[in-house]
Amino acid sequence: MKQKNLFGEDFENKLETQYVNKIALPTYEPKNIKPHIGSLVDSQKTKRIINEINNSNVTEDEKQFLIESARRHSVFNYQNIADYYAHATPEMQQLMERQALVIIDFEKAYQYGYIKLAHEVANQYFENYGE
């Protein structure tokens, strides 16, 4: 069964033929200095939560689950990530692109499912909250 968006349009056909071709490319000029890798993410809140979990009396399985979920509290600094990407090795750049930390190639973003995911999230939002 083909998936439809809010307007009843088929995702596969519309995304392949229209959406990817209409993307306006944002322009970012990286700085000449590679930021320290520690400046790419702020994980202070995550560390506090994990410490609280480790000191709790819940089961080990529960701790593992809570620790995994605590990682969502990390805050990424996408400007520093873009600057780091500009100075990274090709292998690091490829891995950063694969995780959508940066999107350089919109065809790859579509292939990896990030564009489809964005549409699914938007459709779910409109389903729940309307326009």
Q: How many strand units?
A: 2
Output mean pLDDT. Answer: 80
Q: How is the biggest beta sheet arranged? A: 2 strands, antiparallel
Based on secondary structure, the structural category is mainly alpha
- The low-pLDDT segments are none
* End-to-end separation: 26 Å
Tally of helical segments: 7
- Spatial ordering of strands, largest sheet: 1-2
| Spatial shape | extended
Helix content: 55-70%
How much of the sequence lies in strands comes to under 5%
Q: For the CA atoms, what is the radius of gyration?
A: 19 Å
Helix and strand pattern: HEHHEHHHH
Describe this structure in words.
The chain is mainly alpha-helical and 131 residues long. It has 7 helices and 2 strands. It has helices at 11-19, 44-54, 60-70, 78-87, 90-98, 106-112, 114-129; strands at 41-42, 75-76. The chain has a two-stranded antiparallel sheet with strand order 1-2. The longest helix is centred in the last third of the chain and has 16 residues, at 114-129. The model has no long low-confidence stretch (mean pLDDT 80).
Q: Summarize this, please?
A:
56% of the residues lie in helices and 3% in strands.
Give short descriptive properties of this protein:
extended, 7 helices, 56% helix, mainly alpha, two-stranded antiparallel ribbon, 131 residues
